[in-house]
Design a protein that fits this description.
368 residues, alpha/beta, Isopropylmalate Dehydrogenase, ten-stranded mixed β-sheet, two-stranded antiparallel ribbon, globular, binds 3-isopropylmalic acid, binds magnesium ion
Length: 368
């Protein structure tokens, strides 16, 4: 049984190892109480890998990632590596992993658990019950377009990043978003800047064509700047949003804050299905490595634990266990436990590890 649940854990930098430790705790719980065992390997990524191998993603690690059923990643980066050359930077390791595994569909759900509606900087009625899904294209666009970097131009230095998309790159992520919308609220917003960017015009055209295959889903087009505004004005107007790599990076941070804290948001990055229906997949919290609180047991592990729930659902077909785990996280919040990032008056402040223990205690209750 273990053989078909191969998991590679890449804790990474900053708070990465601490929050991943709590996923370990949940995995141990599942092992004991649900009799599901995972075949787990652990390796380095980001700055930790750079310190050990002078590269933020060793070939051997990439090799492992290509051959497991799912990868769980903590976070990468920190001031320690600010002066490292670009290609070896912690972020480059993560980008290489996404690109080589061809994880083009990045699912970033932003749901506001009722217990946290008051932790958001937005008004309670604007965010409570929020449930949206941002689908961010992850392997092309401005992050990877060529040319990139410094040039000589009319006698001075010039720097370029290139936004480029092929038809195939747009089509596959838009399809993935339509398929998700079909299983949700049947509404899809396709977001670009067709008023300014050629790529935006192309994106809009392809989204409109693809829509013909999904007549049950309502497609709306929206400019990215308007989308940012609408996300803080009335986020509940959205169901699924599909957008490019760069806009998706920005808009997902924005959507995250609607939910109360970046410390709550999981993500799944999925590749195309092979003949057997299996997809390469990487799960990671949307938050970063938070070097300012690293090693202090202050980090909120819920985004990473919820990423593991997505892993159970999408990679291991364990929807029931995923539901249990998501419910356990919500129950812990309902019971008043909070890490610092979501702390409110009258609640009980807990450490990273205590939060993990509380989640397992809630799992115990459900299993009883
Ligand atoms: C994210 C992060 C990354 C990105 C960084 C760490 C490279 O901000 O996953 O949103 O820009 O994609
Ligand atoms: Mg980001």
């Amino acid at each position: 049984m273990a053989a078909n649940k191969k998991l590679l854990m890449l804790p990474g930098d900053g708070i990465g190892p601490e929050v991943m430790g709590e996923v370990r705790r949940v995995v141990d719980w599942m092992d004991k109480r649900r009799h599901v065992s995972f075949d787990i390997e652990e390796d380095l990524v980001g700055g930790a890998a750079y310190d050990a191998h002078k590269t933020s993603l060793a070939d051997a690690t990439l090799d492992k990632a290509m051959n497991v059923d799912a990868v769980m990643l903590g976070a990468v980066g920190g001031p320690k590596w600010d002066n490292v050359e670009r290609d070896a930077r912690p972020e480059a390791g993560l980008l290489r992993l996404r690109k080589e595994m061809d994880l083009f569909a990045n699912l970033r759900p932003a749901t506001c658990m009722p217990a946290l509606a008051d932790a958001s900087s937005l008004k309670n009625d604007v965010v409570s019950g929020l449930d949206i899904m941002i689908v961010r294209e992850l392997t092309a666009g401005t992050y990877f377009g060529q040319p990139k970097g410094m040039q000589e131009y009319e006698g001075q230095e010039r720097c370029v990043d290139t936004t480029s998309y092929t038809r195939g790159e747009i089509e596959r992520v838009v399809r993935a978003a339509f398929e998700l919308a079909q299983k949700r609220g049947k509404k899809l917003h396709s977001v670009e800047k067709a008023n300014v960017m050629e790529v935006g015009v192309f994106w809009r055209k392809i989204a409109t064509e693809v829509a013909k295959d999904y007549p049950d889903v309502t497609l709306e087009h929206m400019y990215a700047d308007n989308c940012a505004m609408q996300l803080v004005r009335w986020p509940k107007q959205f169901d699924v949003i599909v957008t490019d790599n760069l806009f998706g990076d920005v808009l997902s941070d924005c959507a995250a804050m609607c939910t109360g804290s970046l410390g709550m948001l999981p993500s799944a990055s999925l590749g195309a299905a092979d003949e057997s229906g299996r997809r390469k997949a990487l799960y990671e919290p949307v938050h970063g490595s938070a070097p300012d609180i690293a090693g202090e047991s202050k980090a909120n592990p819920l985004a990473t634990v919820l990423s593991f729930a997505m892993c159970l659902r999408y990679s291991f077909d364990m929807g029931e266990d995923a539901d249990m785990l998501e419910k356990a996280c919500a129950d812990v919040l309902d019971a008043g436990y909070r890490t610092g990032d979501i702390m409110q008056d009258g609640m009980t402040l807990v450490s990273t590890q205590e939060m993990g223990e509380k989640v397992c205690a809630q799992l115990d209750k459900q299993a009883a």
